[in-house]
Specification:
By secondary structure, this protein is mainly beta. The chain has two domains: about 200 residues, Beta-galactosidase, Chain A, domain 5, CATH 2.70.98; about 60 residues, no CATH class. The protein has three helices and 22 strands. The chain has a nine-stranded antiparallel β-sheet, with no helix packed on it. Strands 5-4-11-18-17-14 form a six-stranded antiparallel β-sheet, with no helix packed on it. Strands 10-21-19-20 form a four-stranded antiparallel β-sheet. Strand 8 and strand 9 form a beta hairpin. The protein is globular and about 60 Å long. It starts with 9 loop residues before the first strand and ends in a 6-residue tail after the last strand.
Length: about 280
């Protein structure tokens, strides 16, 4: 039996993300980032993702073992400062920190620290003592836990939330999702109160725009509509062709005040065994 080891690794960065994580020349990931959204805008560090926000200030440094970034971002319903500090602290162990401070009253659908791993290297996932094979369901297997793990023939990884700063009106969650050719793992803060409720159209032409509140408010008072649309896209695709194209999703937003803060601290531990050319 081959004994698992803590592999030597380094990463590459591109624009605002850790874009590659290399072990013995093998790239284990797709870009890691941070995400959040309000009623209309969607912020993502990843290139080609995100709509209707403006980066007002930006600075940072990166190396093969450290990635630091500071941004001031204005969205349709918010203004905040984001600070990132990611580091390979020792072989096989990565520490990530994301801190957000509201510069004025701001609405949030969520606040996400995002990990992505290649399906061909990790065939199954474990979260909340439940086990999942990759079947490209794109379903969010989401639970109020602090850890999730992925496993494959040569690699395994644990993602652990080591600390967090969660404001009143939000709660911490984690999920794993089998999406196309990757596993997506999110540490995610979600509203526990609804200071606003919206119905978004999550499709290529609307790009997460909400329908007018004068329409969504009465619709969400109808129990059948509310149950059908509440976080709908996270539970699997619609069966009807028209609804699949519109892809509506209803969700709450929480309003945080200027000076309130959110923070994720996470650790990703990677082990390797039996690499072909190790």
């Amino acid at each position: 039996m081959t004994t698992p080891t803590q592999p030597k690794m380094h990463w590459a960065t591109s624009d605002n993300t850790i874009s590659q994580l290399l072990v013995d020349g093998i790239d284990l990931i797709k870009p890691w980032g941070i995400e959040t959204a309000d009623s209309s805008a969607f912020f993502s560090l990843e290139d080609g993702f995100g709509y209707r926000y403006t980066v007002i200030e930006e600075d940072g440094i990166s190396s093969a073992h450290r990635f630091q970034k500071r941004m001031v971002v204005e969205m349709r319903e918010g203004l905040w400062e984001l600070t990132l500090d990611d580091c390979i602290v020792e072989p096989g162990r990565i520490a990530r920190r994301a801190h957000l401070r509201c510069l004025r009253d701001s609405y949030f659908m969520d606040f996400v620290m995002r990990f992505r791993f290649r399906k061909e290297l990790f065939t199954r996932a474990t979260i909340s003592n439940r086990h999942f094979e990759h079947r490209n369901t794109n379903i969010y297997h989401q639970y109020p836990v602090n850890t999730a793990s992925l496993h494959g023939e040569h690699f395994s990884t644990n993602i652990d939330i080591t600390n967090s700063q969660v404001p009143t009106g939000m709660e911490p969650m984690m999920y794993v999702r089998d999406h196309e050719d990757e596993w997506v793992v999110h540490a995610r803060m979600l509203p526990t109160r609804a200071d606003k409720e919206v119905i978004k159209l999550c499709n290529p032409w609307a790009k997460t725009r909400p329908i007018p509140q004068v329409v969504s408010r009465p619709l969400l008072k109808l129990p059948l509509v509310r149950d059908a649309l509440w976080y709908r896209g996270e539970k699997g695709p619609f069966s009807g062709r028209i609804m699949r194209r519109l892809n509506p999703l209803a969700c709450p937003l929480v309003k945080l005040h200027a000076g309130e803060e959110l923070e994720w601290n996470a650790e990703c531990v990677l082990t390797a065994s039996g690499l072909p050319h190790a």
